[in-house]
Design goal:
single chain, mainly alpha
């Protein structure tokens, strides 16, 4: 009899691989370490290039988009700190990234696709 843990490459010793959850946690960890968000971006690009289920692909697109929209917004916030409004922009970007990461994390745990990975808010 074949053991699913040994025949399924996504399962190893009872561990069910969930790449989008890993990327979302790395994004959230980026607020502490700074570099882990970049690691999450790289992993999202690598795993998006592999043969993955459709629900995972929607998460990778959503997470990659989160990074690339958050980066320039953060740069604008840093530049505008000179006039004081940058702090508000940085706070808004942080909240936006946290909300998107948590939504992705919760949906990834249920193995649900992101409804619209190209959206700005959800």
């Amino acid at each position: 009899m074949n053991d699913p843990a040994t025949t399924d490459p996504q399962r190893t010793a009872g561990f069910d691989f969930n790449g989008p959850s890993i990327v979302a946690l790395l994004y959230l960890g980026g607020f502490i370490t700074g570099i882990s968000a970049l690691v999450g971006l790289i992993l999202a690009y690598v795993w998006k290039g592999e043969n993955r289920p459709a629900w995972e692909m929607s998460h990778y697109e959503f997470q990659i988009r989160t990074f690339w929209l958050g980066l320039p917004a953060s740069i604008v916030g840093i530049v505008l700190m000179i006039v004081g409004i940058g702090f508000l922009i940085l706070l808004a970007v942080c909240v936006w990234v946290v909300v998107r990461s948590v939504i992705s994390l919760l949906k990834a745990q249920k193995k649900e696709a992101m409804p619209d990975p190209r959206s700005l808010l959800l």
